[in-house]
Amino acid sequence: MGTTRVRIELCGRLADTCGRELDFDLPAGGLPVSAVMAALGEAHPALGEALAGGRIRACVNEAIVPAAALVRPGDRVALFPPVSGG
Amino acid sequence: MSARVELAVAGFDPAARLAAFTAALEGEGAVVSFTGHARSAAKDGGAVAALVLESYRSVTLASMEAIVADAHARFAITRSHVVHRCGTIRPGEAIVFVATASAHRRAAFEAADYMMDRLKTEAVFWKREEGPDGSRWIEPTEADEADLARWTA
Prior knowledge:
The complex is a heterodimer. By secondary structure, chain A is an alpha+beta fold. Chain A has helices at about 15-20, 35-45, 45-50; strands at about 5-10, 20-25, 30, 55-60, 65, 70, 75-80. Chain A has a 5-stranded mixed β-sheet, with helices on one face. The longest helix of chain A is centred in the middle third of the chain and has 11 residues, at about 35-45. Chain B is an alpha+beta fold. Helix content of chain B is about 35%, strand content about 35%. Chain B is built from 4 helices and 8 strands. Classes of the chains: A alpha+beta, B alpha+beta. The interface of A and B includes residues 16 and 62 of A.
């Protein structure tokens, strides 16, 4: 099975180390969010610590999703560190 | 019931928003408003040249709308208006404005307090202080989390 390249947006402090966007090669059948984060952490060690902390949430197609949610080719993916408004 | 939620990309005038809010009342007896302004000093006392509030597409506005909807479900308010800035904010400029109206004061006070506690900890923004020594990301403090926990106790 081939892979499809998806672009992953990094929000807030996650953009400090590797920029605002990363490309990721997704298997055609998709991958759970947790596996995408683990693979990104391995490919980009500077991001690894932040992604491994369990405090990062994923947003797929403009909705926050649980770590078990599947990322499919064509999805718009963003990673959110803890938020702070006001 | 009226709930208005705005994500402002440029400076806004809280007094004008409050005047418009009050002008639209339909017999309510209580109006409460809160405005948060960018501080000129960080928690450690260092100077802050600007706050930068990053948002994310439709998700930020949706997160604000969910908080406002919960406030209307929880408290006997008849109308509300929430404005939150994004982008670069200079010291003294308004960051957030919340107004609520109700027949009697308690609901308006509590709903404004509730919305602010949730906006601080749950609305989808990332806040960065920029100062002479570089920039620093701000995350909710333990005090912010304790404020939020008051509503689930």
